[in-house]
Amino acid sequence: MGLDVPIVNAPMGGAAGGALAAAVSRAGGLGMIGMGSSATAAKLAAELPHVANLNRPFGIGMVEWVAAGQPELLDTALAARPALLSVSFGERWEWVRRAHDAGVLAAAQVPDLPSARRAVDAGADIVIARGAEGGGHGEPRVGTLPLLTELLDHLDVPVLAAGGISSGRGLAAVLAAGASAAWVGTAFTACTESLLSDATRERLLSASNTDTVTTRAFDVALGYAWPPSLPERVLRNDFSDRWDGHEESLGPDAAAELAEAIAGEDFTRSPINAGQGVGALTAVRSVAEVIGQLSSEAAELLSRWTTRE
Ligand SMILES: Cc1cc2nc3c(=O)[nH]c(=O)nc-3n(C[C@H](O)[C@H](O)[C@H](O)COP(=O)(O)O)c2cc1C
């Protein structure tokens, strides 16, 4: 794809809009616009002007069960001519053929080797090994390194690594293992170009790597149609402490309580998606600064292993 740095931003619904994607692509990585569970074709169209005249490759990511209910979402994405389309969290593969017909490469996030094999059999060009430590939704089955190494051993397509990569050390580790690139989510959430509010960014900066939990409590309370196999990794708070594992007892009042907490940015109750790499976030920075630091630190570490004459 002609990237200068092997970094792809994860397509994060509500966090990675066109501004963040454009900044990642300008900094030499692959910027991805993320469309999450509340995506619509109109919301995607509103983000596309940021990448329209980039003259650099960019990608678009969406959620499979959301896209399945809104055919115009995929139509809008493909009409924008991304270099890469990622459709996550479902195993109906018609979108792969649609992507290929439009000359677009297809990427699938997978939680284990059987899923990876199904994605490749369905024609996926790139597979993302999404480890359990990653932020946001995902099937938390295996940690990033054991998943990545297993997929690299068994697949012939390029494999990207996702989950917990928030530092130059993490980037160096997955590249040394053989990943073609890192698929980085949480480390970009606190960037100036993300769609998150200043208060959310500050909350992310104050979190440590033991502050996350995987839970369905928020999705069940809000009535989102996420399958039970796909919890989300969030910053743990009073709401998750109270309801995680007891989702069947959530009453109709919970949705209203949560909506109010989200609107008021009351982080003792409202959810913030983040992976275990959140502890590495120390300041609100631009995407260019984050990519510069990740890539220069990784390059320095990897150069130690270069064979000397
Ligand atoms: C705030 C946030 C929102 C996310 N939204 C999406 C999404 O809409 N679609 C998707 O495929 N993945 C989404 N993810 C998951 C990422 O694609 C990726 O698996 C994860 O960010 C990698 O782990 P990391 O956050 O530790 O870097 C999201 C992750 C975060 C942190």
UniProtKB/TrEMBL annotation:
The keyword Ribosomal protein does not apply. Keywords: Flavoprotein, FMN, Monooxygenase, Oxidoreductase. Gene3D superfamilies: Aldolase class I. This is Nitronate monooxygenase. One of its GO terms (molecular function) is monooxygenase activity. InterPro entries: Aldolase_TIM, NMO. Pfam families: NMO. It comes from Mycolicibacterium pallens.
